[in-house]
Input
Amino acid sequence: MNATAQPLGAVVDATPAPRPGPVSLAGRLARIEKLDAARHGESLWQEFAGQSALWTYMATAGPFADRPPFAEWLAGRAVSPDPYFYAICDSAGGRALGLFALMEIRPAMRVVEIGTIVLSPALQRTALATEAQYLAARYVFESLGYRRYEWKCNALNAPSMAAAKRLGFIYEGTFRQHMIVKGHNRDTAWFAMTDGDWPAVRAGFEAWLDPANFDNNGKQKSGLAALREQKRAMA
Output
């Protein structure tokens, strides 16, 4: 309550968060690097070439029929301050297999979004891809100190909706007729996790990524969402 008996939210440290930077985040399987068009461009094109479905729900990008327009787009993304792009690389071989951006960066509010997530077929539904999401979230909350981490997607993009929920983002609602994308209506589904959610989300990630959670054929023993809820119940 304030002096006039009106309700207010909790007192919050209003110190702005730093902006995302050119870090390298290393995990057991994945490595996140600042996107470099010269260094990552060739492997990304080889992974993305002919994969038109990767770009269906992207607001402004793709699909790319030829290397030159892709190279031009990638070069622009590599120097963009917001969205700020990273490559997802195989930790063992260093090959770039996908990319994502930290975007809609609002340091004063300590809010940031992850978006433009493009995963090659070789990266989709892998432990490497999950570890990349863990590394990104840990960077946002623990290194940069953001309070809110957002995920937004086309409400018709069922794989993205499912991925957000699996990774620990909470569905907050759908903005109807939010955008016009490539001549089509887009209703946008909003998801987020907060710094208060993060301890249980982190514990779930780490339990899932533990090599002991996989059998000799690389199949998971327990799902990520189940492990997260288990950790949350134990907190």
Notes: The mean pLDDT is 95.
